């Protein structure tokens, strides 16, 4: 699939499952020039939104799309960029952001939240987090973290990377209830009970299902 076709498909999903202030918002939310990796992130974002709408029954609204496209460089939450609100029964529950850095578990353990060092925060491609946050969310604010890898080979280096992210999000424990009723999972062996997912274009990613089952990471093959 070429970039224009992929962009049209993403916009179609957003129109179907996320409301916005105007129809033109859906085309402005995706930057006109995107790398293959960033386009894949937008594709995965559309799949996450679809799942939250259809399986979790969230009402989803696109915010700020008329001002700037989706955030595509790592950093704190910036409310000038486009993001998505998640509501149940009209009540704001959570928000979806792209390319946000979160403050790690090790940062929290050392009491460094107000003066973090370079190693105290890590980026996730997509997050579902507690609503109303500014700056870098705490590890405990993350409901769902998603990493997107548009790659022919999802190798051991990437596995080690996501295992490190899991360790900085939570501690390995017995199963705890997540913030979700159905998708992506209802329980996770972690405290705080954040969900963590990897989407990739590599069909062999299921080879890592063993570590995923142990640590509560879902590996998903998702072509574009």
Average pLDDT reading = 92
Instruction: State the low-pLDDT regions, or none.
Output: none
Portion in helices? 25-40%
Distance between the termini: 7 Å
Content-based structural category:
alpha+beta
Q: Tell me the strand percentage band.
A: 25-35%
User: How would you spell out the order of helices and strands?
Assistant: HHHEEEHEEHEEEHE
Number of domains: 1
**Biggest sheet descriptor:** 7 strands, mixed
Extended strand count: 9
Identify the overall geometry. globular
**What is the rounded Rg?**
17 Å
Biggest sheet, spatial arrangement of strands = 1-2-3-4-5-8-9
Number of helices: 6
Protein architecture, described:
It is globular and about 45 Å long. It starts with a helix and ends with a strand. Strand 2 and strand 3 form a beta hairpin. The strands form two sheets. Strands 1-2-3-4-5-8-9 form a seven-stranded mixed sheet, with helices on both faces. Strands 6-7 form a two-stranded antiparallel sheet. The longest helix is centred in the first third of the chain and has 19 residues, at 36-54. Helix 1 (3-17) runs parallel beside helix 3 (36-54). It is built from six helices and nine strands, in the order H-H-H-E-E-E-H-E-E-H-E-E-E-H-E. The chain has 224 residues and is an alpha+beta fold. It has one domain (3-221).
């Amino acid at each position: 699939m070429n970039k224009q076709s992929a962009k049209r498909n993403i916009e179609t999903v957003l129109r179907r499952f996320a409301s916005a202030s105007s129809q033109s918002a859906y085309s402005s939310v995706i930057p006109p020039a995107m790398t293959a990796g960033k386009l894949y992130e937008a594709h995965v974002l559309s799949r996450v939104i679809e799942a939250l709408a259809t399986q979790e029954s969230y009402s989803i609204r696109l915010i700020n799309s008329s001002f700037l496209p989706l955030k595509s460089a790592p950093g704190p939450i910036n409310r000038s960029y486009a993001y998505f609100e998640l509501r149940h029964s009209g009540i704001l529950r959570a928000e979806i952001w792209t390319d946000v850095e979160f403050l790690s578990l090790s940062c929290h353990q050392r009491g460094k939240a107000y003066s973090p060092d370079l190693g105290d925060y890590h980026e996730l491609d997509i997050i579902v987090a507690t609503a109303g946050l500014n700056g870098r969310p705490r590890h405990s604010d993350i409901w769902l973290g998603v990493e997107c890898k548009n790659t022919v080979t999802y190798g051991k280096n990437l596995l080690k990377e996501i295992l490190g992210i899991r360790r900085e999000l939570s501690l390995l424990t017995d199963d705890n209830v997540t913030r979700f009723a159905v998708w992506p999972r209802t329980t996770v062996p972690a405290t705080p009970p954040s969900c963590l997912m990897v989407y990739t274009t590599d069909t062999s990613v299921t080879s890592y299902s063993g570590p995923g089952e142990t640590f509560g990471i879902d590996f998903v093959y998702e072509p574009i």
